[in-house]
Amino acid sequence: MSYDVQVFAQQALTAEDLRRILTEVGLAVDDAGDATEFLTVVRGARARYSFTLALPVTVEAEDVPEEVTAALLGPSYLYERVVEGSSTTETPHAVRFARRLAQASAGVVLDQQTGQVWARGKLRAAPPVQRGTIDIVELRWYVRPGGTGAPAATAWLEVARRHLPEALPRRFGSYEPLPMKLDVDGPDAFVQVAADETWSLGFKASAPCIEGSIAAGSAGPGVHSHSLSVHREPLADRHWRAALQHLFVDFATATDAVFGSAEVQRGAEWSGRSAWYGPTAERTTYLAAREQWAGLLPHPAWWSWFGPDYVPLVLDHLPADQVVHVDGSVFHARGEEPLDRDQPSAALRGPTAAPRPRRRLRALFTRPDEQAPAITWLPAQLLPIEDDSAPHALNPLLIPASTIPVGLCTER
Fold it and tell me: Scanning 127, 142, 232, 274, which has the fewest C-beta atoms within 10 Å of its C-beta?
């Protein structure tokens, strides 16, 4: 028999670091063994065998148990301790060392026999965002009807638990104030409401996430969208960015997203509990008004997701070092930390290029051959054109792209 204890951690300690911690708790290493992959730990004057300690190995996000993810942000390494043999006298020493190791490596202890997790302090606490004008990162996934309703709500719960529990719906419903709670009404209620609604299901999340929506299952046959808004400031921490990226990619895959984006929206107002968009908020671009697909974003975003419909049309126009292929789709990232709209656009134009011309909706019944060529991040025929006639509209009207994949064309 054996007693197994795991430590999931943010940091990888060296063998010398581990030896030092063992000494601090009254243990030692038997140097007669091969220490390239594990250490044989002994204790007492007689150097009695206590337990075996494996050196840290990297661990993928999908291999981390949900109870660990709920307690620790960004677990990247795994340490395993095994107390071999039937004696239980060495178990307390292994557990005591595991807790000391967790503190030293920014980790948590998982007792595999009981499933209990031990942590010192809060290891997933997002820094508070002060009231006032803030920047928000808006994530959006555009999907066909098959990626809405109950399947989408089920996927959201699974992906959020696996990668970003803060994105779980604390409160949810189709009207304000949101009447239902996940910890009271349960996950089945969230899935059922998403299946029954005719428009969308809104929810409030936990910091650093703010709120989101799931497209309902009873909506029409066109293109729909899911969304999540997140505070920009905490994403300066690479661990929060990694968790958000895993969620972005896995949910896009689970819902077979046509297109997805993550971009900074500046100028939102934050009360300390909720966000709203006043007249100074930066405009966004919604690509599926009235369920009609208009094309890809007219400007580059921080993150983009291209489903199989778009991959052959865009792949040659994306920098190869910014692209990751995922099951026939493509994830594209233009930088490590969140970029506002001006940053990638300025890099695209260069120091002397003129901005892309914009035309009023009423004047754009055709695309004249004499129009000056615009500098765009993707071929212009894939991009809609924004209307400037209503400068205060949060979501401007769009002239649809001239080239839209056949599977996304709908009657207008």
Answer: 274
